[in-house]
Amino acid sequence: MWQALFIDRDGTLGGSSEIEYPGEFEMFPCSVTALKRIKETGIPILSFTNQPGIAARHELKEEFEQELKMFGFDGVYICPHEERERCGCRKPEIGMLKEAAADRGLDLTKCAVIGDRWKDMLAGKKAGCTTVLVRTGAGESEWQKNRMNLEGTVDYVAEDLQEATRWLLNSPQRVLEEILDGANTEARFVLGIDGLSRSGKSTIVSEIEEWLKGKGVTHQIFHIDDHIVERKARYDTGHEEWFEYYSLQWDRKRLREEFFMKLKEGCVDVRLPFYDGELDTVTERQVRLPDKGLIIVEGVFLQREEWREAFDGILFLDCPRERRLLRESEETQLKLEKFRNRYWKAEEYYLDTVRPIKRADWVIPT
């Protein structure tokens, strides 16, 4: 649970990238929804905003504070100084964040910053916060200007405050707590971690596994890519490349009968094909399943019709294509023709026909 969320005002909450005074300022409709959602969690909402030029007008500062509190903010931190004054509170300095931490006893590493300016991100990172850049206000131009420097400064890029809130509140641990609250782990609960290539499935599964170990929950994890077929059965078959990837990468019927349906039926012994990438061979192994606890299956296209019914719940990781491509190696990124013909067409088919985001029980933007 976050100890607090720090939200910038102009361009993030509403208005524009320029300063708009109280009475003129209007929140984006999505921001109204986002603040309501945060309020439901009980997480404190704090404003931290640069407002140069109001130092000589105490009543104007009070108007800013009153308006933001009327919007639903629990605390307001304002820097009234001009940049030339070189104060310690004007973003990208961290004075406002440190003041809030002192006022409220916050651990800033357990807080998040949301803003549309690079200086918001720099302040957040210097203070140890999680950072989210929104593309409203100045955010789009800031993202374009600094996109090559995102790593280590920005944890997530969101379209607006609503998406930023959704990402921050739907952490894997939070979702897993919700899953386990509703799951009967005295019996068997089968959870699918679905998502397209490079959406972060393996990373989240590793985080979940550590969390489960800490909680002492019986669990077993399967990666669907451990069970693909030999290359000759999925390349140069005469079919279109996207079809080879979507339909021939796995022996779908066999996996349904010998794995997925046995998961559903509560079987404890299954015989599975395991692929060796170095030798390009498949060997069968006997696998024993726990009769209770959590069984996690991670992989792409898990919600296809022949597999979906085996799961008690599906978590889908939603990640834009451009972000997923950047997670590939530089060498792999150059193979755009293969991505277009093989992977992206298959992904588009899955998204259009299966509609995995809509059908999933939980969705985490990554």
TrEMBL record:
Record-linked NCBIfam families: HAD-SF-IIIA (TIGR01662), Histidinol-ppas (TIGR01656), PRK06769.1 (NF005264), PRK07667.1 (NF005807)
Pfam families in the cross-refs: Hydrolase_like
GO biological process assignments: carbohydrate metabolic process
Subcellular location: Cytoplasm
Family statement: Belongs to the GmhB family.
One of the record's GO cellular component terms: cytoplasm
Origin: domain of life: Bacteria
Organism: Rossellomorea marisflavi
Example of a GO MF term: phosphatase activity
Protein name per Swiss-Prot or TrEMBL: D,D-heptose 1,7-bisphosphate phosphatase
Primary site of residence: cytoplasm
Keywords in alphabetical order: Carbohydrate metabolism, Cytoplasm, Hydrolase, Metal-binding
